Amino acid sequence: MRALGFAWRSLVRQPARAILGVLGVAAVGALLFDMLLLSQGLLVSMRDLLDRSGWDIRVSAGELPGRGGRVPAATRTAERIITLPSVKSVLIVRLANARIESPSGSPIAATFEGVRGYARPGDRISHPWTVTRGRDAGGASETVIDSAIAKAANLQIGSLITLRASCIGDREALPPAQLRVVGIAEFPFRGTDEDAMAGSLDALKAACGGNVGDEADLLLVTSVSEATATAAAIRDAVPDLYAMTNDEVVGRLQQTGFSYFRQISAVLTTVTITFAVLLITVLLTVSVNQRLGEIAALRALGFSRSRVVADVLSESALIVGSGGLLSLPLGMLLASGLDRILKGMPGIPAELHFFVFEPTALAVHIGLLVATAILAALYPMRIVSSLPIAATLRDEVIG
Amino acid sequence: MSEIIVDAKGVSRTFAMAAGPVHAVRDVTLQIRAGDHVAVRGPSGCGKSTLLHMLGCVDAPSSGTLLFDGHDVSTLSDSKRSALRLKRIGFIFQRFFLLPMLTAAENVELPLSEAGASRKDRQARTKELLDYVGLAARADHRPSQLSGGEMQRVAIARALANSPQLLLADEPTGELDEATGAQIAALLDRVNADGTALVIVTHDQALAGRARRVLTMRDGRIEREAAR
To answer: How large is the ipTM?
Structure first.
């Protein structure tokens, strides 16, 4: 009987202890797996979100889009950028706070995204939203709204909405404007608690009573080929602005806001592994101490030191391996629940996820569990490897 | 003269204890030859088991030389001593030390498996040994389903698995009633008659009386040796 088979029989001999160990590792392993998913989840999800949007460079006044004020002279800047040979299209994005009048009484607060695009002849310009019903807004009196607004204000495609938008500051007197709903859209960069609507920059101007100014919150750029070179060309062309590729945006987020998640994840990973190691060490040590006489007898019968050590290591591997396997579905289930809770935080884009499965996370998970099995077995392995055979046999008879 | 298996010359074993050194075995000179049947007697704590452990290469002398098959045990590495025990020495213990999660057959098979025997050879040898000790019908029973005498028979079969030259038994009837002890004694006689040298440490006079050589120990020394 080889070490693994022997270890299996030892575990089956004490099923309660084995089940306790496996369940303990499964619970701890699930947490560990979730921490690994969390450590990179936001970055992976954000990168995916940025890549899926179809824009590979973001030009803004601050280091990160949305921070550091607005881009001045947006039209001239966009026209300058579109002339660069490596640029395919540019989209001016301007945001405004809007209040939509609702038949139910209280107005609905929403973010209005006004855009204007510049493209090379023959190239199509996409928008940072996806129309799910109806068509996209184009004219100065058209808009697309998200399904939450449509439901709350009982709006259909073709309905007229009355809104007041503020493009300069919240304190300005808001003139009412009317826009026609031509489509229902999803806004992947808007939070789940945030209502959004969109249209052309002209529609935004109309909603703001003309008080817009030639400013942009953001310029979105699609490059013809390699984004890094295009971003460098844009920085040369408009040196006062920040032009960042998707990778650079993600890298910046990694260094700033998202680093908290990595730190939390690192701390919790260490804690969970420590728990797992202690749990298995205690279980194996108790088990080995209960079997010292048997182990000494096996050694007397000629079992080598390495063989009895391998038995203990195999036992640890079986407990951690079985628990580790269980930890995967358990971890995914837990991650899904935690993701739902965390996405309830204000301002989190609907399509952003905190826990994202990645093969590397699974590989690290397996690696950490292997290390756990070895670490946890170290002390009980030391007990059996240094077991004095004669003294143990004598003590067992006296005891 | 038959071949010498164990040749102990001036062997002593001292244990360092907090209260001072304990001299468990003192200056013992002894030879065990092929086919020997030796009983070691003496009061508790006189060093019988310690001597047995040294003869079986699970312990090494503090002084003196102990040769097993011509090899100085003190100079052998742990793995070489393990290999020696596995292939040349069998052990029987007072408390049997069968593994409770394995069947009788699996317990017997363990040393064969450790020695690298093929599955076919293991199964054949296990069947042969369980037949030999009269437990063929109990092959699939676990130790908890066996009586004390049956467990000791399985332990004897396990000790004989790799056909050792020397079988060492430490109080093999210590946990058994008189009748069962007599059956085990008869089985050990048969093992010896079939060519395996036997050294038995025992308080049991009847069991000791079956040996051809009886060593009586006191205070770590062999006080006298009687031959039949």
So the answer is: 0.92
